[in-house]
Amino acid sequence: MRGCRGFTLIEVIVVAAIIAILAGILVPVIFNQVDEARITRAQAECKTISSAILMFRKETGKWPYLMPDDPACAAYYTTIQTAGVPESNPTDNTTGAWGVNVDEVTFGLILNLPGTPAITQPCYNNKAGTYLMEDKPDPWGHKYIVNAANFADAVKPVWIVSAGSNGCLDTSVNSQTLNDSPCVAGPGDDVGIRIK
Among residues 93, 94, 92, 96, which one has the least CA distance to residue 104? Predict the structure, then answer.
């Protein structure tokens, strides 16, 4: 009668080595796909916000930016932000401050999200409706930011930007291109779309 034969130590080591090699190959590929998915989601959400702002402009005849000298409006916004983690260190770029701070107005107040206080209608010809269905942070938990002050200038660009995984704006406020001034060494990781 033959006894049960188990695996030898060599066989176990060979199997463990094969698993380690496969894991070493697959793990970076999987994490790369996760990063790509986050970037793709951020790009899609920037386009959604852009569409909402353009629809707002079409219906009201104004950009979602309140001029300080407009007698119907008391507020003055330099940036518009979505929901997200309040930044203990604001995501300003040193080459051109976006005017970002924790107390800035959210998109919900400007683009009339359901469940938020309505915007001041006289500021927008009493025509503003609902333009965004939800107000959420970017895939890294930070706010989407729009340099709304540039709506008042015909030449300066307006960006909808996610600060990316580093949480720091690598795009200066009046830049013609994304990631023109990285906050940290290496290429910038901002994701965004230019409205005008």
Answer: 92
Contact between 87 and 102 under an 8 Å Cβ cutoff? The reply is: yes
The 80-81 sheet, strands edge to edge: 80-81, 144-146, 159-162, 191-194
- Rg of the chain's alpha carbons, rounded to an integer? 24
Indicate the pLDDT class of residue 54, thresholds 50, 70 and 90.
very high
Q: 146: helix, coil or strand?
A: strand
Per DSSP, 114 falls in state: T
Rounded to whole angstroms, the Cα distance separating 196 from 194 reads 6
Tallying the residues shown for the chain, one arrives at 196
How far CA 138 is from CA of 4, 11, 20, 47, 160, in Å, comes to: 57, 48, 34, 13, 11
* Strand duo 80-81 + 191-194: pairing: unpaired
Q: Which helix (H) or strand (E) holds 191?
A: strand 191-194
pLDDT at 60 over 80: yes
Percentage of the chain with pLDDT > 90?
19
**Owner of token pair 């094969």:** 18
Q: What is the pTM of this model?
A: 0.78
